[in-house]
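testing teh design pipeline on a random one, pls ignore if ur not involved
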C-alpha cells in the first residue's frame, strides 16, 4: 500500500492512498462471493454459480459500488493501524482514481490526536498521607446526632440562641427595591446559632415571638458564592410563625439504640470511628489519585483537536444545566448569579475541559501501552452489581444500552489504570 501523509497542522491530516493489487484482488473476490450467495441463476443452485458467471450477470453499477466501499474501509483500517493514528471523527474520503478492480486511489481527510509525549510515570513517587480520626471528630458526630434527635417543643416566649424558629422571609435589593431570586422562603425551620444562613441574619431573630415581624439589612460577604450578591446590602422582611425549644437527648445507651442497632454508646462510637476512617480514606485516595495524575499530565505533552475540547465543554455545560434545573433555577438566572455572559461562562470552562481531555487521553495511552484491559467477565460482574442496585425498570433499560455498557467499561478501565499508577507512585525508592 502506497500512502502519502500530509499534516495540514498537528491535528488535521490529508492522506493519499493507492491500493495494492493483492487487496484489490481479495476485495473483488469477496464482493463476488457475497453476490454469489444471494444471486439466483438458471441452472445453478443458490451459492453454487462460478464467480465469473456471477460477475457476468451482476449489476455492474452495484458491483463496482460495493467493491469501492469494501476497499475503502479496508484501506482506512490498515492505514490507521500502520501509522498508529488516533482519529477523533469520521474521515472524509473521496475517490481520486478508479479503474474497475485494477486501480483505486483515494484521498482521506481526517482529524486526529496529535503527537503524545507521556511523562515517565514509572519514576513518579508521591508519599501517601496517613489518615487520623480523633476523639473530637467522633464527638462532633455524636453532637450532630443529638441535634437531629432533639425534640422540638413549641414555646410562647421570645426566641433565644439555640431555639428553632419557623419563618417566612423575603430578600429585597436595598438599592433597586427589587426582589432577589432565591432569597425567599416559606415555613423555613432555622436553628438560631447554627450559622447555616448568611452571617448576621440569625442574630436578628433573637427576641422575636410567634406572629412578630421584623425588617433588617444584611450585607453579603465579599467572597459569597453568587458574584452578583457579593458585598451587596439586602433588606430582609421576616415573619416568625413558630418558636420551638430544642430539647436534646442525653448521650446514653438509649440514644445509641435509637440511632442504630447499637447496645450502648461504646458500640455507637466505635461504628462512627470506623465510618469516619472509611470516609477519610476514600477522600484521601481520591486526592492521591488526582495528585498522581496531575503530575503525569503536567509533565506530558498532547496536541488536542479543538473539536474534542468543544465537545467536553458542551458536555460539562449540559451537566451543569441539568443540575441547575434540578435546583429549580433557570440558566439565565444562574448566569446572572455568576455575573458572567454565556460566552464568558463557556470560555471559563475551556481550561478545565482541556485538562479533562488531556488526562483522559494520557490514561488511555498508558492503559494501551501497559496492556491494561477489562475482561468480559469483569464487566459482567460490575453490570450484575449495578442491576441489583438499580431495581427501577427504566434504569435496568438504561444499563442494557450499548453506549452505557461501553461507558461503564471505560470507567472500569480508568479505575484499573488509576490503581496501576498509584501503586507505582506509592512505592519507596
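output:
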Amino acid at each position: 500500500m502506497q500512502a502519502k501523509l500530509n499534516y495540514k497542522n498537528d491535528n488535521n491530516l490529508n492522506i493519499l492512498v493507492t491500493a495494492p493489487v493483492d487487496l484489490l484482488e481479495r476485495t473483488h473476490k469477496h464482493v463476488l462471493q457475497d453476490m454469489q450467495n444471494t444471486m439466483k441463476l438458471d441452472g445453478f443452485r443458490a451459492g453454487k454459480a462460478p464467480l465469473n458467471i456471477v460477475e457476468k450477470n451482476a449489476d455492474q453499477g452495484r458491483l463496482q459500488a460495493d467493491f469501492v466501499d469494501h476497499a475503502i474501509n479496508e484501506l482506512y483500517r490498515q492505514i490507521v493501524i500502520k501509522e498508529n493514528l488516533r482519529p477523533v471523527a469520521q474521515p472524509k474520503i473521496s475517490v481520486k482514481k478508479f479503474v474497475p478492480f485494477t486501480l483505486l486511489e483515494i484521498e482521506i481527510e481526517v482529524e486526529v490526536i496529535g503527537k503524545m509525549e507521556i511523562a515517565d510515570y514509572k519514576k513518579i513517587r508521591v508519599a501517601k498521607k496517613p489518615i487520623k480520626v480523633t476523639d473530637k471528630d467522633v464527638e462532633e458526630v455524636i453532637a450532630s446526632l443529638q441535634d437531629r434527635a432533639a425534640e422540638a417543643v413549641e414555646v410562647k416566649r421570645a426566641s433565644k440562641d439555640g431555639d428553632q424558629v419557623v419563618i417566612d422571609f423575603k430578600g429585597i435589593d436595598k438599592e433597586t427595591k427589587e426582589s432577589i431570586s432565591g432569597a425567599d422562603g416559606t415555613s423555613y425551620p432555622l436553628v438560631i446559632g447554627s450559622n447555616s444562613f448568611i452571617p448576621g441574619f440569625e442574630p436578628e431573630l433573637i427576641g422575636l415571638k410567634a406572629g412578630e415581624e421584623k425588617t433588617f439589612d444584611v450585607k453579603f460577604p465579599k467572597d459569597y458564592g453568587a458574584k452578583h450578591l457579593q458585598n451587596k446590602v439586602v433588606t430582609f422582611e421576616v415573619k416568625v410563625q413558630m418558636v420551638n425549644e430544642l430539647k436534646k437527648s442525653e448521650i446514653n445507651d438509649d440514644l445509641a439504640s435509637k440511632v442504630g442497632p447499637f447496645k450502648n454508646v461504646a458500640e455507637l462510637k466505635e461504628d462512627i470511628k470506623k465510618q469516619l476512617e472509611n470516609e477519610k480514606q476514600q477522600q484521601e485516595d481520591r486526592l492521591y489519585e488526582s495528585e498522581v495524575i496531575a503530575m503525569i499530565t503536567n509533565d506530558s505533552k498532547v496536541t488536542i483537536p479543538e473539536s474534542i475540547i468543544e465537545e467536553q465543554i458542551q458536555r460539562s455545560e449540559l451537566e451543569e444545566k441539568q443540575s441547575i434545573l434540578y435546583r429549580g433555577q433557570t440558566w439565565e438566572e444562574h448566569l446572572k448569579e455568576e455575573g458572567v455572559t454565556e460566552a464568558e461562562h463557556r470560555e471559563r470552562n475551556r481550561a478545565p475541559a482541556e485538562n479533562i481531555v488531556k488526562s483522559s487521553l494520557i490514561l488511555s495511552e498508558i492503559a494501551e501501552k501497559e496492556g491494561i484491559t477489562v475482561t468480559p467477565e469483569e464487566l459482567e460482574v460490575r453490570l450484575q452489581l449495578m442491576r441489583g442496585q438499580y431495581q427501577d425498570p427504566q434504569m435496568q433499560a438504561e444499563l442494557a444500552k450499548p453506549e452505557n455498557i461501553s461507558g461503564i467499561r471505560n470507567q472500569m478501565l480508568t479505575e484499573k489504570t488509576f490503581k496501576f499508577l498509584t501503586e507505582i507512585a506509592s512505592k519507596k525508592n
